[in-house]
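Trying the structure run again after the queue cleared.
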Amino acid sequence: MTIVAIDHVQLAMPPGGEDAAQEFYEGLLGLPRVPKPPHLEARGGCWFESDAVKIHLGVEQPGDGPFRPARKAHPALLVDGLPALVEQLRAARVTVRDDDPLEGYDRVYVDDPFGNRIELMEPHS
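Done. Tokens:
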């Protein structure tokens, strides 16, 4: 047995956050929203997928306890054109946080509209 790849990353969101998720993940990060399978649509949430990246947002229902975003755990997304993306995010009033250098990469952190931590990385040329 061999693990060959990650199919998708799922992050949590509170109920009713689909529009905010779409503005961030599709509008700012450029990941297209794709339809969820009909039998999962009733649960709420939304999926964003490109050929190489799949991020699914699932709704944490109030009965699950208070919503808590992932503040430390996070997906790290490889990007092309990090400076332009940072400029676009700041123009949209998204807080961009620098971090200690990581050999071979420029990187920053942002939070999605629900407080989930997202790392954006670009390899050095």
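The first strand starts at residue 9 and ends at 13. Worth checking whether this holds up in the mutant runs.
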